[in-house]
Amino acid sequence: MKWLLTSDTGKDALSKKMGFTTPFKSFADIKSDNPLTQAAVEDAKSGKTPVSWNFTVMPSDNWKNDLGSALLEYAQGTGKWDKVKSAFVDGWAKEYSQAHEDDD
Description:
elongated; mainly alpha; 5 helices
């Protein structure tokens, strides 16, 4: 681990080849080529409050997987935005309905 975070080869692998966010002091002089990482770093520096990713009311892993698949297809240009919307909205409604069947 020490090698990965302190050597030039390790730092290059993490920040350039893999495009990871590298929030370590040893990476202060390293800039990632990944535009998403660059945007995340700029956002973090902006002073905005980050979203906590511990959603207690989010539907199941199946819902997240379906949404993730639809987003991936859209990002790759092989899927439509309507599929993303449906995976989110219709998928959430289905999960809600299943979770509250006995409430009626």
